[in-house]
Sequence to fold (424 residues):
Amino acid sequence: VWLPDAMEGPTPISALIHAATMVAAGVFLVARLQPVYVPFPQVQVVIAVVGTITLFLGASIALTQMDLKKGLAYSTVSQLGYMMLAMGCGAPVAGMFHLVTHAFFKAMLFLCSGSVIHAMEEVVGHEPVLAQDMRLMGGLRKFMPITSTTFFIGCLAISGIPPLAGFWSKDEILGQAFGSFPLLWAAGFITAGMTAFYMFRLYFLTFEGGFRGTDKAMAAQLMAAAGKAISDDHGEEHGHAHADHPHESGWQMALPLAVLAVPSVLIGLLGTPWNSRFAALLNPEEAAEMAAHFSWGEFLPLAGASVAISLVGISVSVLAYALHKIDLGTAVAGRFPAINAFLANKWYLDAINDKLFVQGIRRLARQVLEVDSKVVDGVVNLTGLMTLGSGEGLKYFETGRAQFYALIVFGGVIALVVLFGALG
Fold:
């Protein structure tokens, strides 16, 4: 719930969050607790099912995102689901390996998005609604060769194309799922194709085709949809001039992209199933068992199927967004508007959370306030009134006459005698 919205912050922070900090904490904790829940298969099933739901949910929402960073954020949600699926299948090493490989290419992808946004701000101004929306991008490859190349490498890696890092880690998870939960493997397998599709959708909308950043009508439409106004002197109001097209970022921003591209390609080779140095580092016994039981006859069909579904996803993306042979807006959104709205509204999770938790807690707080003000405060105020009333009544017994005091004492003794007589 919170993860996609966390990308609103500075992009380098987003890259760090989605690669190696709080996002990783849950996966790491589940991996460390494996000895606790391994004796309980039901718990592992729950973890695997939750992971499968998460990976499919994140991928399905990413299919319709037009904000570049939000598309990457929901891809992180999906990849976390793969890691949790590995934990549920009793393969924490595979999950941790995917966590490591994912950290490199996802950090690179987010930094690439930051480079793109930085360049787009030269054209559309410092307005996130415009600078992050892919409908105003396109054709950036010729202006930003380093950023586009590294983003392309990241797309290949997360899509699971060999020999890049994502292939080795994701394929190992799918292999473990195939042996443990074939139905969940099928969901992960289909989602692998969806991942390839939406990642290359991001790439083609951002870097290929014609540049759309100077489309004033589209900019006005996006600002209106966001509830904001746009004017012709927008740039002067913010103290910057608008360029005709973006430029490649400086070496300070381009160098980290090039550095991260190297492990995004090569680090997966540390986890090959026939000689996994990563597994040997975490669990030497498991690494030796993996190497002893490795079979090309089992590996090649599963790996081939995984690559094939990714290539299918890439091909559909090419046809739709690079060659424009398929109009997905008509083919899918037009024919299935309810499904398109469901995905575009992120499964209505934000609305459900707002209705159930935000507004629900507010209503509960109002009820508690009502009880506090009328019941709790009422009891306190009643105590004060009783004290005040008793004081007012008792002051009349303070007459200063001894006969009156003796009469009160006599009356009290008589009352006690009658009371004790009645009781016993």
Observations:
- The chain has two domains: 2-231+241-344, 357-423.
- Residues 235-239 have pLDDT under 50 and may be disordered.
- The CA atoms of residues 398 and 405 lie 9 Å apart.
- The chain has 21 helices and no strands.
